[in-house]
Amino acid sequence: MAELQFVDGVLARIRAVAGTEYDERAYLFVLEAVEYLQGKLDARRHVTGAELSWACRDLALERFGLLSATVLDCWGVKGSIDFGRIVYALVTVGLLSTQPGDREEDFLDVYEFATAFAAAAAIKWEPATP
How many distinct structural domains can be found in the chain? Predict the structure, then answer.
């Protein structure tokens, strides 16, 4: 029961900061995408907006398949910039952090949503190793 109260409290803080533009599942999805991406890396490290945007795409395709764009759209996510807005709301409530030089605009137009979730786009992106 305490876990539900914690989640409700966190989601209330997110709504207070970001309003209701995005479904709360979009915030949880982005947090999961961070872990999904970290799991693909050789070592945990800071990730870029572009890397996280691609991880969100790949996780959505894995989880929702051809319905990925539809699910994200239902959550209010219509472009990669929306992932950036979600990330920065999560930063504001203390669930994620940024590095100097990081900007919300790093998520702008990382890929075209109309084609990124098409069946032909099922090729997975792999992060470069430093």
Answer: 1
* CB atoms closer than 10 angstroms to residue 59: 19
- Whether residue 103 lies inside any domain: the answer is yes
CA 87 – CA 55 distance, rounded (Å): 13
Query: Element (H or E) spanning 91, and its range?
Result: helix 80-92
Q: How many CA atoms lie less than 13 Å away from 31 in the CB half-sphere? A: 16
**Cβ-based burial of 16 (10 A; exposed 0-12, middle 13-18, buried ≥19):** exposed
Q: Is residue 130 part of a domain?
A: no
Q: Note the pLDDT of residue 1.
A: 42
Crossing angle of helices 24-40 and 80-92, rounded to 10°: 100
pTM here is 0.84
Give every CB contact of residue 15 below 8 A, 6+ residues apart in sequence. Answer: 24
CA–CA dist 33, 39 (Å, integer): 10
